[in-house]
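ok trying again, last paste got cut off:
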Amino acid sequence: MGLDIAPEKVAHVIIKAREYDVKVGAWDDTREDGDAEEDPSAILEDFTNDPTRAELAGFIDRMNYDEQANLVALMWVGRGTYEKDEFDEAVDTARAERVNATSNYLLGIPLLADYLEEGLEKMGYSVDDVESDVL
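nice, full thing came through this time. structure:
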């Protein structure tokens, strides 16, 4: 049982997913009680052509098939769908059940960064150490 993806790649996804998760819904300019300049959260607008999402999706899409299956399995372990000792089974399931782009699946999951972080920790990696290697 081993991780077939570099922990640093997972850390990169975690960091970018956190940036993406922080964003709020697109600012509604139809409201009459102010404009974007008066609404500091407007800088965190979330649009469908968001560059953070595009960068993260591109990074995941460039991973090979095994890395993508490992990333999904790691998320499942972090979410509690599988236990640490079922990791290989989770990878096999991720390979078998893949029907859409892995990036679309993962970016549709709320708390993706948290699940990946938890998955890495359950698999015996120190997230702080791995992230410091990336930052």
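cool. Helices lie at 7-22, 51-61, 65-79, 87-97, 102-107, 112-122, 127-134. The first helix runs from residue 7 to 22.
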